[in-house]
């Protein structure tokens, strides 16, 4: 019995069905973050700051800020004319509790500390900066779709996150080189476009499930290696108190929307590529036709050339006025201008023809 060849829609449904069965089967799986090698490996000091101070750094548009001495130890120094910003640090004092004869640290006040952004420093390259250079955006799967949507993809620090997508900026920030992370964030970007078009809102946790399921499906469809164990654990983690099966089944509709959106963009890109090719061929044909009849172009119409033996050069003439307009310096005739049959009559006491 011959195997029936699946249509594209049947193949898509088959992949999606098997993916859903895999995700909702079995018990909980530990989500192992260490499998993804982030650019920020936890060595940035401000990761240990209080939430308040990290917010201050955020408002100063930086992901790495340190004191002058800390930058000096790292081999970097503030640029000339750069300015620091201040964070708040607590001050403690030690007091002895006579009743139980134990010393305790007690908050006594606060002090301000000057911090410099990495963007305002120069010097040695930091380890995470070297790791960020490993990200080759052009090698990411479906990067052409991101570019078509006007989404910028760049290496950046995202704290403990592996990546992020900003709908307002239309930017995907990658804190690693993992293609799975990119497809997850690209799914967020496409979901954002669909929500905007259909004027819909999604619960944050549910959208994470949609993005992760979409990434796993896209990876399976386009032959990109995916870790379904991590996907399964990720979705279970976001499912909250509701049963994960219902969340996944509910997210299937959005997964299909993401896929169809990508296919429409691909079809549009292929159409544009075809039209551009037709236009280019037509343009070449038009240019070739012009080359056959050079004297019908605007630049060479009403122009002839004649050889001046006295100066040994070719001279261009305006046939309407009869005046000479220019001399060709290399002694060779113009390639696309008609040559006059008569010889030029040279002027006494003059080496050059009169100019227009």
Key features?
4-stranded mixed beta sheet, 9 helices, 356 residues, disordered C terminus, 40% helix, alpha+beta, 3-stranded antiparallel beta sheet
* Residues in helix, %: 25-40%
Largest sheet: 4 strands, mixed
Overall pLDDT score: 82
Backbone CA Rg: 35 Å
First and last CA, distance? 87 Å
Q: In DSSP terms, counting alpha (H) and pi (I) runs of 4 or more, how many helices? A: 9
Give a description of the structure.
- The chain is α+β, with helices and mostly antiparallel strands and 356 residues long.
- It is built from 9 helices and 12 strands.
- It has helices at 8-24, 51-59, 68-73, 127-132, 143-148, 179-198, 204-221, 228-238, 244-292, and strands at 65-66, 76-78, 85-97, 102-117, 121-123, 152-155, 163-166, 171-174, 303-308, 313-318, 324-328, 338-339.
- Strand 7 and strand 8 form a beta hairpin.
- Helix 1 (8-24) runs antiparallel to helix 9 (244-292) and helix 7 (204-221) packs across helix 9 (244-292).
- It is flat, with a radius of gyration of 35 Å.
- It starts with 7 loop residues before the first helix and ends in a 17-residue tail after the last strand.
Outline of the structure:
The protein is 40% helix and 19% strand. The protein is an alpha+beta fold and 356 residues long.
């Amino acid at each position: 019995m011959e195997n029936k060849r699946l249509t594209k829609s049947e193949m898509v449904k088959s992949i999606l069905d098997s993916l859903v069965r895999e995700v909702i089967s079995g018990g909980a799986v530990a989500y192992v973050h260490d499998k993804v090698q982030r650019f920020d490996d936890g060595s940035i000091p401000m990761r240990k700051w209080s939430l308040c101070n990290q917010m201050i750094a955020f408002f100063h548009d930086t992901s790495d800020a340190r004191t002058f001495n800390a930058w000096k130890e790292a081999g970097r120094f503030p640029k000339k004319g750069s300015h620091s910003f201040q964070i708040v640090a607590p001050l403690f004092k030690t007091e002895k509790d006579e009743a139980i004869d134990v010393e305790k640290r007690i908050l006594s006040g606060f002090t301000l500390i000057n911090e410099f952004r990495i963007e305002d420093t120069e010097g040695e390259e930091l380890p995470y900066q070297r790791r960020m250079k490993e990200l080759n955006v052009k090698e990411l799967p479906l990067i052409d779709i991101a570019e078509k949507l006007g989404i910028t993809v760049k290496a950046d620090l995202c704290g403990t996150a592996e990546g992020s997508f900003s709908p307002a900026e239309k930017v995907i920030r990658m804190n690693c080189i993992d293609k799975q992370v990119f497809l997850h964030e690209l799914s967020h970007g496409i979901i954002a476009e669909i929500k905007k078009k259909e004027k819909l809102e999604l619960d944050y946790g549910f959208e994470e499930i949609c993005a992760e399921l979409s990434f796993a499906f896209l990876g399976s469809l386009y032959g990109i290696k995916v870790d379904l164990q991590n996907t399964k654990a990720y979705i279970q983690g976001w499912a909250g108190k509701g049963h994960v099966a219902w969340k996944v089944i509910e997210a299937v509709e959005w997964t299909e929307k993401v896929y169809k959106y990508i296919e429409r963009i691909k079809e549009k890109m292929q159409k544009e590529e075809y039209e551009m090719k037709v236009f280019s061929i037509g343009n070449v044909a038009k240019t070739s036709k012009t080359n056959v009849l050079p004297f019908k172009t605007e630049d060479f119409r009403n122009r002839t050339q004649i050889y001046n033996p006295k100066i040994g050069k070719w001279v261009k003439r305006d046939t309407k006025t009869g005046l000479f307009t220019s001399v060709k310096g290399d002694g060779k005739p113009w390639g696309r201008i008609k040559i006059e049959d008569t010889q030029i009559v040279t002027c006494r006491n003059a080496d050059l023809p009169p100019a227009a």
